[in-house]
Amino acid sequence: MAAQNSCLSLIKYLLFVFNLFFFVLGSLIFCFGIWILVDKTSFVSFVGLSFMPLQIWSKALAVSGVLTMGLALLGCVGALKELRCLLGLYFGMLLLLFATQITLGILISTQKTLLERKVKDFVLETIQNYHSDPERSAAEESWDYVQFQLRCCGWHSPQDWSQVPSLSNNASEFRVPCSCNNSSATNDSAIPDMASLSQLSRGGTLARPRHSAALCAADPKTRLTYGEGCARSLQKWLHNNLISIVGICLGVGLLELSFMTLSIFLCRNLDHVYDRLARYR
After folding, report:
1. Nearest to 66, CA basis, from 102, 22, 35
2. pLDDT tens for residues 122-156?
3. To pair with 99 at 20 to 30 A between CA atoms, which of 49, 90, 269, 278?
4. Which sequence ranges are marked TM in the entry (predicted)?
5. 198 backbone φψ class: left, alpha, beta (φ>0; ψ -120 to 50)
6. Angle at CA 11, nearest 5°, toward 275 and 27?
């Protein structure tokens, strides 16, 4: 009897402490999302994104933080107060979250070809409509950021931009977003348009791209632009970070399974303990 009580007390406080940690973590994520919304200008200059995609990411962070806080609060209160209804709800939400993650993993694995085609079509459509559709400005800014971070240009190659009527001047020379600009190349080899001069920093180097009419004249035969397409760069990034991605997914899954096991064990054994205690009174 005493050993079982001690075991249940240990499980209760372990569940409480871990959920308290995740409640604090969710609070930090929520505050960070709100901070981005409030202080947009600083983050725009830091990450290179403009207001619209940055606002989307900030709202996603805020919602994720609220959900994490709510789930962790259920676990904290349910464990500390030994409330079976809250523990059962906590277990059910964790089970739903775990099942959703498993389903997404299966869909991504089985529909990999379809997903790649959808992403390819979306990116090529974004490139074709670059600076022509104001409603796609968020997608354009996000793609500029991808090109800047992965040091790539276009989907297959920089030639993708030559097929955009509004950017191509002739068969041999065309304009590309300045996010394609190879910062390691000498500045003398670059021929930026007047619209891209606002992207120059005080030191004379090209600053991080922002959404504007910033276009740079490029010759595909020179090293002015990144020569590799982003499709290959994304494949390389996924290959190089595959172990980390799988490790994080497995860690999150095992953590959820542990919390579910502890919560359902505590929930199922509370009545037995109370019944035994009542007999000894």
Report:
1. 22
2. 999 888 888 777 767 778 888 888 888 888 888 99
3. 269
4. 12-36, 56-80, 87-108, 242-267
5. alpha
6. 125
